[in-house]
Design a protein that fits this description.
The complex is a heterodimer. Chain A is built from 8 helices and no strands. By secondary structure, chain A is an all-alpha fold. Chain A has a domain at about 1-70. Chain B has 12 helices and no strands. The chains are: A mainly alpha, B mainly alpha.
Chain lengths: ~150, ~250
């Protein structure tokens, strides 16, 4: 049932955020400490456990992955409620930070990409990897077969 | 008539928000395909459109919450609010393939570590240079240089103000747009033509739509490798941003 997936996602989120609140109290930070990250780790662990025990049903996947496909639209809605009018006063800060960051990361890619370059990389399940990217970018309906382009690649 | 529609939008706020965001996404995808030949990812255009709408909303309402301050668009506030935003971010973790993640090995871990710390340091340095002195604002701006998700998640966890949050998101969005546009041009220069360097690239750049769009425009078969590490990137950023990185900044600023 789809609700099991949504409920699994909810429970992971609630437990993660609660642990983040607890961690905040322990560390003396007046904030939630990494609750979303902890929730993500719980969900990864839950998926691995469900796969091993053969309980990862279509409904569970659909329930979780629907919300994965809603990631970008939700981020768009989030962007639409920010205080952009005030932010534009900090224009140079945004420009300088973004340009320097991207430049630095490209240089780091050039360095890291050359480390161990001779070793061939083999992927155990390329279609599955492609499918994940498609779902988050919203190009794939949850539970459907991999995108045609996934097979091509 | 107009009054009735207005009333409907206010009463069905979340449903109306789905429709509004759906239209924004659709227009953005059309612009992406027709005007940029798919070079600029539709999601990046949609996010920029969201920020433009937030600007218009801010001018019209004079409020702090962009488009959500206009009563007929109040549902945007719920759809893009902290609750559903965190929920959707957690859902993306479901797409992480643990076997692949393990095989990416040291290079991937190394790239993720550098890709988190390097942008953060650059963001923090820029925030200091532009006169920010409180640990919460500095951390939020630094986190925005990691991705446009890590920035607001960190800011929300630390209680940063909306202005700093918007700066943080704007930095992350501009970073994503720059990655999408420049990756096809710089791919040869940085040796981005094999799965290993794509994994390093994803870990370093982080932002999922930036990496997916950039690699798709460069070589579609590299997309999954980059997206794989990039998917981890936001999770790691969300974990260390409001915790280790914030504590590090606070220990320096006092």
């Amino acid at each position: 049932m789809t609700i099991f997936g949504v409920a699994l996602l909810s429970i992971c989120t609630l437990v993660g955020v609660f642990l983040g609140d607890l961690l905040g109290v322990v560390l003396g930070v007046k904030a939630n400490v990494g609750g979303v990250g902890l929730a993500m780790m719980l969900l990864i662990a839950a998926r691995v456990w469900l796969q091993k025990s053969g309980a990862l049903s279509h409904g569970v996947k659909l329930g979780v992955e629907f919300w994965g496909t809603m990631y970008i639209p939700i981020v768009v809605a989030m962007a639409a409620q920010q205080n952009v009018v005030a932010a534009l006063r900090g224009g140079p800060l945004v420009l300088v930070t973004a340009v320097v960051t991207v430049t630095a990361c490209f240089l780091a890619t050039a360095l890291l990409g050359r480390i161990g370059r001779e070793r061939p990389s083999d992927v155990h399940d390329e279609a599955e990897v492609e499918r994940g990217g498609d779902i988050i970018s919203g190009d794939l309906i949850p539970g459907a077969a991999p995108h045609p382009s996934a097979r091509k690649a | 008539m107009m009054h009735m529609i207005q009333h409907l939008f206010i009463e069905q706020s979340l449903v109306a928000a789905f429709a509004v965001i759906g239209v924004v996404m659709w227009i953005s995808l059309v612009i992406s395909k027709r005007l940029t030949a798919g070079r600029v990812h539709g999601s990046a255009i949609a996010i920029v459109a969201g920020l433009v709408l937030a600007y218009i909303g801010g001018i019209v309402s004079g409020g702090q919450k962009g488009l959500a301050d206009i009563p007929v668009f109040a549902g945007i506030g719920l759809l893009g609010g902290a609750m559903l935003r965190d929920f959707a971010i957690v859902a993306t973790a479901f797409e992480v393939d643990v076997v692949e993640a393990k095989k990416a090995g040291l290079l991937g871990v190394f790239a993720l570590a550098i890709g988190t710390v390097l942008p953060f340091i650059i963001g923090v340095t820029a925030a200091l240079a532009f006169g920010y002195r409180d640990a919460v604002s500095i951390t939020t701006i630094g986190a925005g240089a990691i991705t446009y998700i890590v920035g607001p998640v960190t800011g929300a966890a630390l209680g940063a103000n909306s202005t700093v949050m918007a700066l943080s998101i704007a930095t992350g969005v501009l970073k994503a747009v720059l990655i999408m546009v420049t990756t096809p041009m710089l791919a040869r220069f940085v040796g981005l033509d094999n799965p290993r360097s794509a994994m390093a690239f994803g870990g370093l750049m982080g932002t999922v739509s930036g990496v997916a769009g950039g690699l798709a425009a460069t070589d579609p078969k590299l997309v999954p490798y980059g997206a794989l590490t990039a998917t981890f990137h936001t999770g790691i950023g969300c974990l260390v941003g409001p915790s280790i990185l914030f504590l590090a900044v606070r220990s320096v600023t006092g």
